[in-house]
Amino acid sequence: MSKGEKIGINIFLGIIFFIIIFVFVYNLLDNNDFMKISIYQLLSIVCTICISYYLVQKLTDNRRNVDNIDKVIYKLQEQLHNSEVVKVTTMDNRQALILQKSISNKLLYLKHIKQEKIADDIQYVEEQFNKLRELYGNHMTEEDVLKSLEKDFQIIISNIDDKCEKMHIDLYN
Amino acid sequence: MKIVIREDFSETPGSRYIDEGPFSGQDFRDRILIKKYNEALTNHEKLEIDFDGCFGFATSFLEESFGGLVREYKKTANEILDNIIIISEDDDTIPGLVKKYVLDAEGATNK
């Protein structure tokens, strides 16, 4: 939006504001019953405000919840793309185990949230990641085997990554 | 009765078998776990196993330690699961994995 358009919108909103104030003051001066209200009208207004407030809050909470889930999925992908996650060498695998633990924890938390839209995808990602974790855990002391499995690791990581992208889209649809 | 893995065994648990390197699951099971487990049973206590404070656990370590109790020491899955308490704040997946490996080992043994 250009600067000129912003100024135009502000002027328009200012005019509307002054018209409302003018109508309000005019009615207040001209009509003695202007501030009178029946119980029915009062209750209607209170009910409308309460329901609107509840619905807005609920929608905001849901949106925040979805945003948080999305952030966890992004973080999971970031960790998954860390080159240390399946280190194809037997030298010091502590970082790999730490990352795998962290990813597994995130998947467990995601599994326990109530998001029907992505429940099946989380299940798939968990199965794929468990496959990777078991494969790595069973061969982490055999460098030759790890090297021969590098392609399998990459396929699993790619499968998980694609499913995560799908979850990002599905969460907001 | 309690085992704190980082203190009683290692902060860096290794792989499955002793010949694969230090601090393996087999080593943990044969040197520490089975001894404390039997002591706890004798004393009619539950064995608490604290997994926290370690760098992480390979699935092969967990499988050999706990699945191995079924295979090598002829313990039943129900007996193991009823008599151990797993403490794992760092890795929330460990209780589920231990249960799975114990049940899988029993299933494989009974085949």
Features:
heterodimer, A: mainly alpha, 0% strand, B: 111 residues, three-stranded parallel β-sheet, 3 strands
3D architecture notes:
- The complex is a heterodimer of chains A (about 170) and B (about 110).
- Chain A is an all-alpha fold.
- In chain A, about 80% of the residues lie in helices and about 0% in strands.
- Chain A has six helices and no strands.
- Chain A is elongated and about 90 Å long.
- Chain B is mainly α and about 110 residues long.
- Chain B is about 55% helix and about 10% strand.
- A three-stranded parallel sheet of chain B has the order 1-2-3.
- In chain B, helix 3 packs parallel to helix 5 (about 95-110) and helix 4 (about 75-85) runs antiparallel to helix 5.
- The interface between A and B is medium-sized, with 20 and 19 residues.
User: What does the average pLDDT of chain B come to?
Assistant: 94
Q: Total number of β-strand segments of chain A?
A: 0
Biggest beta sheet attributes of chain A? none
Instruction: Please work out how many helical segments of chain B DSSP would assign.
Output: 5
Class based on secondary structure composition and strand pairing of chain A: mainly alpha
Low-confidence stretches of chain B: none
Radius of gyration of chain A: 29 Å
pLDDT < 50 runs, ≥5 residues of chain A: none
Mean pLDDT of chain A: 91
What is the radius of gyration of chain B? 13 Å
What is the straight-line distance between the termini of chain B? 33 Å
Strand content of chain B: 5-15%
What is the end-to-end distance of chain A? 27 Å
- Fraction of residues in helix of chain B: 40-55%
Number of helices of chain A: 6
Q: SSE order of chain A, as H and E?
A: HHHHHH
Main β-sheet of chain B: number of strands, strand sense, barrel status? 3 strands, parallel
The class by helix and strand makeup of chain B works out as mainly alpha
Short characterization:
Chain A is built from 6 helices and no strands. With 173 residues, chain A is mainly α. Chain B has 111 residues and is mainly α.
